[in-house]
UniProtKB/TrEMBL annotation:
Keyword Coiled coil set for record: yes
Record Pfam families: zf-B_box (PF00643), zf-C3HC4_4 (PF15227)
Species for this entry: Pleurodeles waltl (Iberian ribbed newt)
Keywords: Coiled coil, Metal-binding, Zinc, Zinc-finger
Residue ranges occupied by any RING-type domain in the UniProt entry: 16-57
Protein's UniProt keywords contain Lyase: no
Protein name per UniProt: E3 ubiquitin-protein ligase TRIM39-like
Domain B box-type: 89-130
InterPro entries linked to this entry: TRIM/RBCC, Znf_B-box, Znf_RING, Znf_RING/FYVE/PHD, Znf_RING_CS
GO MF term (any one): zinc ion binding
SUPFAM superfamilies named in the record: B-box zinc-binding domain, RING/U-box
SMART domains: BBOX, RING
Signal peptide start-end: none
Coiled coil: 152-230
Amino acid sequence: MATANQLLSLKEEATCSICLEYFTNPVSVDCGHIFCLFCISQYWKDLQTDFPCPECRDTCRRRRLRPNNRLANMVDTLKHLDVPSATPQDPNLCRKHEERLKLFCEDDQETICMVCSVSRDHKEHMVVPIREAAQEHKAKCLSYIDSLMKRREELRTVQRKEETNLRQLKDQFKSQEERITNEFEKLQQFLEEEKSCHLHNLKEKEKKSLQSIEQKVTRLEEKQIALRSLTTEISLKCHQQDVELLKVGLQTQYQHHKTNEKDS
């Protein structure tokens, strides 16, 4: 039974270096390298002569593609096998050509290998060494960081100013609140004093008025008592003998009572 390493090796042999997938309709070019029919056709699509191999860069004079049916059958077999995943690819290697990434394409903003740089996808692009691109990118980052720090300092200055305005505004409103409170406390004190004064005057007036009325009531009660006494006295005399009744005249007693009323 084939080992895992052998299966991985077979999978690599059955993988197109352009699309990095299993071959589909594999064909070979003059140098012997094999690609998917669609992949190599697209790679040479705009070329009329001098067809470079994507792997070795050898130039083929003619667009001659030879089908590889045996490889196609092997690929079909591999697709039905449980082939383990390959070891994770080195991030410093090109996925297409497995060459070390040494260049940076300014147009596409991606790292590429030497083979990519002369390929149709990048040959018309601005390409620089990856270290140079990294240094330039680092310089841009540092410049951007410096700009951000300046902007941050500007925001801090604005923040401090607004915080000062906030404190001043709080102090201003607090001062106004204290002033209004003091004014209303004074007004309340004044009203309380006025209230006390008016109530005192009212009490004094009430006292005098009540005393006057009470005195009148007392005098009226005294008069009623005198009248009741006189009435009783006259009633008693009415029951006396005629001679006794006439000894003291009624008119004299009534006049005496009227005199007492005037005196009181």
